[in-house]
Amino acid sequence: MADDEQRRRSHAERLLSATPAESTAPPSTLNAETMPAIVETAIQVAIRQGQFDDLPGAGKPIPGLGAHHDPDWWIRRKIERENLTGLGPPALMLRVEDRELDAQLDGLRREADVRAVLEDFNRRVIEARRQLLGGPPVVTRPRDVDAEIAAWRQRREVAVAAAPAAVVEPKKRWFRR
């Protein structure tokens, strides 16, 4: 055990004292015992040569290190970074759609369209709860169609009342007598 330790140290010292051309030469024996020393030596040589200076993000906090642990952090970050839509586990997609559903409903004009969108959303939530495909659990609840339609009507009335009445100008004729 002591011989292995001494061999690693002497190898590391040889690599550190070598010139850059010598340090790039492959070791005579590359195995699991010598690999940590070789890697550490290569890192130290790169630090001394200044190869790690001025890297992007140097001195800045690492984004995403925060208060809570999210097991799906990698898929969320990928979706945000790539601005992907329509991809991901059904549970996550339904959560996003649930957040944006009121805005989508406000864009519709007819009650029948609102009812169809809500029924489709509820059908997909129930279907996602029944499937056992893995991934995060489905915590999104189906929406009460009648209550959502009443809320949609109320939001629509408020929007109509808040909008100023459009002034209708008489149509200009192109021909006057």
Written account of the structure:
- With 177 residues, the protein is an all-alpha fold.
- Helix content is 56%, strand content 0%.
Strand-helix topology:
Blueprint lengths: L1 H16 L2 H4 L11 H15 L23 H10 L7 H17 L4 H20 L14 H18 L15
Helix pairs in contact: 1-3, 5-6, 6-7
Provide a concise account of the structure shown.
By secondary structure, the protein is mainly alpha-helical. Helices cover 56% and strands 0% of the residues.
Keywords:
56% helix; single chain; 177 residues; elongated; mainly alpha
- Give the proportion of residues in helices: 55-70%
Order of helices and strands: HHHHHHH
The rounded Rg comes to: 32 Å
Structural class: mainly alpha
Nearest-integer average pLDDT: 81
Tally of separate helices: 7
The end-to-end span amounts to 113 Å
Give me the count of strands. Answer: 0
